[in-house]
Write a structure and sequence with these properties.
Layout lengths: L9 H15 L10 E6 L10 H19 L3 E3 L3 E2 L4 H10 L3 H18 L10 E2 L3 H16 L3 E11 L4 E3 L4 E2 L2 E2 L7 E10 L5 H6 L9 H11 L1 E10 L11 E6 L10 E4 L4 H9 L1 H15 L11 E9 L6 E7 L10 E4 L5 H10 L7 E2 L18 E2 L10 H15 L2 E7 L4 E2 L1 E2 L9 E4 L4 E3 L21 H4 L5 E3 L6 E4 L3 E2 L1 H5 L2 H4 L12 H6 L4 E5 L5 H15 L12 E4 L2 E8 L4 E2 L4 E4 L2 E4 L6 E8 L10 H8 L1 H9 L8 E2 L2 H21 L3 H7 L5 H22 L3 H15 L10 H12 L4 H10 L16 H4 L3 E8 L2 E9 L4 H10 L1 H9 L4 E5 L3 E5 L1
Parallel strand pairs: 1-2, 1-26, 3-4, 12-14, 26-27, 28-33, 34-37
Antiparallel strand pairs: 5-6, 5-9, 7-8, 9-19, 10-11, 10-18, 12-15, 13-14, 16-17, 20-25, 21-22, 21-24, 23-24, 28-29, 28-32, 30-31, 34-35, 36-37
Helix pairs in contact: 1-24, 2-18, 3-4, 8-9, 17-18, 18-19, 19-24, 21-22, 21-23, 22-23, 23-24
The structure holds one RNA strand of 87 nucleotides.
RNA sequence: GCCCACUUGGCGGAAUAGGUAGACGCAAGGGACUUAAAAUCCCUUGUCCGUAAGGACGUCCCGGUUCGAGUCCGGGAGUGGGCACCA
């Protein structure tokens, strides 16, 4: 029999089915009977997709297609996080307008995303730089402004000298700009802040309700918010000859129970009192000057020695009336708590180090009850124990003492319970052009006012000059000059633009009304939100995800929205990694330039030795990027998708390998060739629908096992296991033909439906080869039936002392006694128990029998 | 330093409730087809002993609970991530 040599033309096949889906408008929904909102973090339009995008969008698409097959009304939109620095850099470097550059990039990336065959509803496409988006965002800004949740304040900002802009705290990594890598400087600026700290407690508390979020993300947010429960306490300054307008110092402590161990008070160098003292003392002002210099280099903070300067002032201990010296100390932060601490060297490591250095008393007040330790402390003891040397607190536990001492503070009117957070308000000002304009005017009479609703959106001027550096909006000849609509008074526009994290903190709401005004109180939001499943990188664990939660809570608190959390389910995928190589000089080498010669790695063209470094996240600088566009071109989207889903669990890192992508391709071609050989027409379908015979019962069992495994794996985000189960079943049916199995057609049909979320183009092609005229993307997900899974016989494991000795195939459902008899009558077992009388027998019916000898 | 996660063959990884460890794939080796190669197909592949039948060991290390532990508990090591003078 001559066989026609077939070639799997992925380009033709994939574009054909993409066109079909689009014609049928298959992925568009306006039904909200059974809503399921799948969202992947939208990309910055850099112009080219990378493997990280391929992975996250494949994962999201599998879920969207799977849920659609299960009968959900799936919302699966895509848009563009299109404001931000790179567009402005491109404008400066290539003399192209940011808008033009961005639009071109969006076009390119959209084409690339479309070639992946993802089931997006492109009718809902949004872009954060468009007027419709800006308008809604400015409305939100004004709402928050009017509710006093946005305010302006002068503050030390992290100034990135390369970007020429401020950075949020979380955009500073190791004292360097997160994007530019330049050392960050301190600069005093008047900037807009969002009052996220007002929501610190609900942001923290509601984490426990997010039970479909990964635990590690919640832990990161918890640490980021950083709640400390303690007490604040006012201490009276003993002699106040020098300072006239301060006679109390307020301190915050989480260990009020150790109050009797206090031996000093330390204040921050930029504490108010320090500033006042500096005016009168050259020594103090010099100390502060020195501190300011070291303030800029923030590295090795823990290694930095603890320095302090005695102010010659004392406070009075509130209970013993003893005088405690006041120090100005470099380890006290003005930005946390009250900028002043009470030093208890015996029970705080920092205080301990400080006390050792300046010869201050170390008074032990907590006794470790578990281990008897020497009174000569080697380091501070911070654990639990019994209070000693503490007057009325003696013999209490730490927790009892905390409660009691706060009571005493309150009685004396000197302090009370207090909670502090590490979280800082969100600085949302950027001194940049390519961002959402802040809808605020400064009127000539000094009033700071939001722009009138009717004037929205405030758009960016198109004619800008980037050549001068600095903020182009500030430098624009006319844009910022305006008038107050109500009074006609002259006014100047705010020239700062918004941090792009503001743009991305509410975009999931905009998808619900992409083309019209967004009504935050609409039924649409109530029905579709919170997003059922959000998918994205863990790098956004605290920034984007916390800001989004805050925006929703802030709007909710002023009754502008009815939801309280933006994302019900969250999934964080791992990175895509690839081998890296370095040559002897330490320079990165492209993996494709490395060849193996006599068991040594050498550079293809130079012949020099190279060394394999571990697999790392794909990045340009490490030269280990694999371009998805060329992979899709050469292998097809389905091959790329299958590779992305195989082997590694989605939450872990995925190692790119050429053999892996080849393997995926082989699988696809093999399946397709098999279906081609079976090719059917309508009549054949009817023929195969003959009554079942014995031959097919095993196939049916295997099929239902496969359906069960795939369904459960997909439900648990174990996409690698789903692929494995689908391949396992394929290995089984590859050996079958329609002639000898009358339910093969049905089995293959169900298998193809299960393949369709993973490799949708291939699945459509196979569906057609099975003789169907409709689309597999419209089919219902198959159900597994337990009646086909129940087996007549099972393999009973027989163990001796817990070690597997024998497997007996017996009838399922036998009683304990029946099972025991079968085992004890088994010849091999008799042999064993004849020589060693057994002491005990454990029988778990249908599973295991264990003989103890 | 503090907090969290992870550790299973040569590699990526499977393993409802503690009950056949290594599914599925990659790599490797052998064979078939071919003038040859590629492609494809078939077989082998945790380690050790044994010609074999078979046996012993084996899920980072040490200990515990249990008839039975990759899975539960205690201690330790290593890797990765987050926070880091936060009082």
């Amino acid at each position: 029999m001559s066989e026609i040599h077939l070639i799997y033309e992925h380009k033709k096949i994939e574009s054909y089915w993409q066109e079909k889906w689009s014609q049928k408008n298959l992925f568009s929904t306006n039904n909200i009977k059974n809503p399921y909102y799948v969202l992947e973090m939208f990309p910055y339009p850099s112009g080219r997709i990378h493997m990280g995008h391929v992975r996250v969008y494949t994962l999201g698409d599998v879920l969207a297609r799977y849920k659609r097959a299960q009968g959900f009304d799936v919302l699966h939109p895509m848009g563009w996080d299109s404001f931000g620095m790179p567009a402005e850099n491109a404008a400066i470097e290539n003399n192209i307008h940011p808008r033009e550059w961005t639009k071109k990039n969006i076009q390119n990336m959209k084409t690339q995303l479309k070639s992946m065959g993802i089931s997006y509803d492109w009718n809902r496409e949004i872009s954060t730089c468009e007027p419709e988006y800006i308008k809604e965002q400015q409305k939100i800004f004004i709402k928050l402004f009017n509710a006093n949740l946005i305010y302006k304040k002068e503050s030390w900002a992290n100034w990135d000298p390369v970007e020429g802009s401020v950075l949020a705290n979380e955009q500073v990594i190791d004292g360097k700009g997160w994007r530019s890598g330049a050392p960050v400087e301190k600069k005093l600026l008047n900037q807009w802040f969002l009052a996220i700290t007002k929501f610190a407690l609900p942001l923290l508390d509601n984490l426990s309700e997010l039970n479909e979020w990964p635990e590690n993300v919640k832990v990161m947010q918890k640490n980021w918010i950083g709640q400390s429960i303690g007490a604040k306490l006012s201490l009276k300054i003993k002699t106040n000859k020098i300072v006239t307008n301060t006679d109390m110092i307020e301190v915050f402590t989480t260990r009020p129970d150790t109050i009797f161990g206090a031996s000093f008070v330390a204040i921050a160098p930029d504490h108010n009192l320090s500033k006042q003292l500096a005016e009168q003392s050259a020594e103090i002002s010099n100390f502060i000057k020195e501190w300011k210099k070291s303030f800029i280099s923030e590295e090795d903070l823990d290694k930095a020695p603890k320095n302090g300067l005695f102010t010659k002032l004392y406070v009075l201990h509130p209970f013993t009336n003893k005088a405690l010296p006041i120090y100005i100390a470099n380890f006290v932060l003005s930005s946390y708590g009250t900028g002043a601490v009470i030093g208890v060297p015996a029970h705080d490591q920092r205080d301990y180090e400080f006390a050792k250095k300046y010869n201050l008393k170390i008074n032990e007040v907590i006794q470790n009850t578990k281990e008897k330790q020497n009174t000569i402390l080697q380091k501070a003891y911070t654990g639990d124990g019994k209070l000693i040397n503490s007057d009325f607190l003696n013999n209490m536990t730490v927790n009892e003492a905390k409660v009691e001492i706060v009571k005493r503070f309150e009685q004396k009117g000197i302090g009370k319970k207090d909670i502090k957070f590490r979280l800082r308000d969100w600085c949302a000002s950027r001194q940049r052009y390519w961002g959402c304009p802040i809808p605020i005017i400064y009127r000539e009479d000094g009033k700071v006012l939001p722009v009138e609703q009717s004037e929205l959106p405030i758009e960016l001027p198109e004619d800008v000059d980037f050549s001068k550096g600095g903020n182009p909006l500030e430098n624009h000849p006319t844009w910022k000059f305006t008038r107050c609509k109500k009074t006609g008074l002259k006014a100047i526009r705010e020239t700062d633009t918004l941090d792009t994290f503001f743009d991305s903190s509410w975009y999931y709401l905009k998808f619900l009304s992409p083309k019209s005004d967004t009504n935050l109180k609409s039924k649409l939001i109530e029905r579709w939100c919170p997003v059922h499943q959000y998918v994205g990188g863990i790098e956004h664990a605290v920034l984007h995800l916390l800001y989004s939660r805050f925006i929703v809570k802030a709007l909710n608190s002023i009754n502008e929205i009815d939801i309280n959390e933006p994302f019900k389910g969250l999934f964080c995928q791992g990175m895509v990694c690839h081998k890296t190589y370095k040559d002897e000089t330490g320079k990165w080498v492209f993996p494709e330039d490395v060849v193996k010669n006599n068991n040594q790695l050498i550079h293809k063209s130079t012949g020099k030795k190279v060394f394999a470094i571990k697999s790392e996240k794909m990045s340009k600088s490490k030269k280990n990027i694999v371009d998805p566009v060329s992979i899709i071109e050469n292998y097809g989207a389905d091959t790329a998708r299958i590779f992305m889903l195989s082997d590694s669990p989605p939450e872990r890192n995925l190692d790119w390998s050429n053999s892996g992508i080849e393997g995926s391709r082989k699988f696809i071609v093999k399946v397709w060739s098999y279906f081609n050989k079976l090719k059917l027409n309508d009549q054949d379908i009817e023929k195969t629908a003959s009554p079942e015979n014995n031959n097919s019962s095993d196939l049916r069992k295997q099929l239902h096992l496969c359906i069960e495994k795939v369904t459960k794996s997909l439900d648990n985000f174990q996409y690698n296991v789903a692929v494995a189960s689908l391949r396992e079943f394929a290995n089984y049916f590859f050996t079958l033909t329609l002639k000898d199995n009358n339910i093969l057609h049905e089995a293959l049909s169900k298998w193809v439906i299960m393949m369709s979320p993973l490799a949708p183009h291939l699945a459509e092609e196979l569906w057609q080869l099975l003789g169907y005229k409709n689309l597999v993307s419209e089919q219902k997900w198959p159900r597994y039936e337990n009646k086909f899974l129940t087996e007549e016989n099972i393999n009973l494991i027989v163990q001796i002392n817990g070690k597997k000795k024998l497997i007996i195939n017996i009838k399922k459902g036998l009683t304990k006694e029946q099972t025991e008899r079968i085992v004890l009558e088994n010849r091999a077992i008799i042999k064993i128990i004849e020589s060693n009388n057994y002491k005990k027998i454990i029988v778990v019916p249908d599973r295991v029998v264990n003989l103890v000898i």
